[in-house]
Amino acid sequence: MERREQPVVPVARLAGVRREQFLRDIYPRRKPVVLKGMELGTCTTKWTVDYLSQAEGSKEVKIHVSAVPQMDFLSKNFVYRTLPFDVFVQRAAEVKHKEYFLSEEEKYYLRSVGEDARKDIADIRKQFPVLAEDVQIPEYFEKEQFFSSVFRISSAGLQLWTHYDVMDNFLIQVTGKKRVVLYSPRDAPYLYLSGTKSKVLDVDNPDLEKYPLFVKAKRYQCFLEAGDVLFIPALWFHNVISEEFGVALNVFWKHLPAESYDKSDTYGNKDPTAASRAIQILDRALKTLEELPEEYRDFYARRMVLRIQEKAYRNDYG
Question: Is the pTM for the entire model greater than 0.85?
Fold first, then answer.
């Protein structure tokens, strides 16, 4: 199939944005934006490899290890391993390793979790208290809306799968550089979803024989440097590649009523309870349609789609 390029839209970059301006002019638009020049504390200058290693010492951390740069959560092309934090940081900063699990060029990724990942949320203040003292998290939301603060460290070249989260998110790039590719929730039909994740692993060179509709998705893109903060609205798909070894902090917060969220969700990526119920009802309806011959099943399925579009689709996307 002939290669076609996705249209690319640069993500807006704004400097010196105060809380009032963010909540009044930026947040309601529900589009990603890079915030520059924000006060983040001493972390942007202090968090060298040596400092990180010494600050939290030899506490053990569970990490992802991949023999290839593109990590795929659907095929699970990585393994979980445990290392002392100081050893992990040193290894993640290396290009080639003298000691390794899979290969001398393997990639490392830490995504912090709670003490019990099934019950506790990630909170840098609890899991990495020494480092938390160096961070000033932008207070653009109310304290009761806070959900989690996820500490991340990535090897250079590591690329994470495209996915969406159900909560709003600040991606704070503390050190290193990242490229972030984003897609609007409206382009979900073109992303070949499996749950919250896209099956299209390589967004730069997609297999258009296998994923022909992917080219229709509008690609938003930005490059983050140390000190940049990317606002990712809930439901926006994002694919992240670490261009350098780097440290980041994601801060998630809730903007729906508390009862809207799944109480067992410690990662912020389970669909709201009402959405989960609706999907279950739809699955039952589709199962019922299987009682009809193909011609009738096709006709009534199309009527269902039209009804969903009429009752639930928005018409005011910018």
Answer: yes
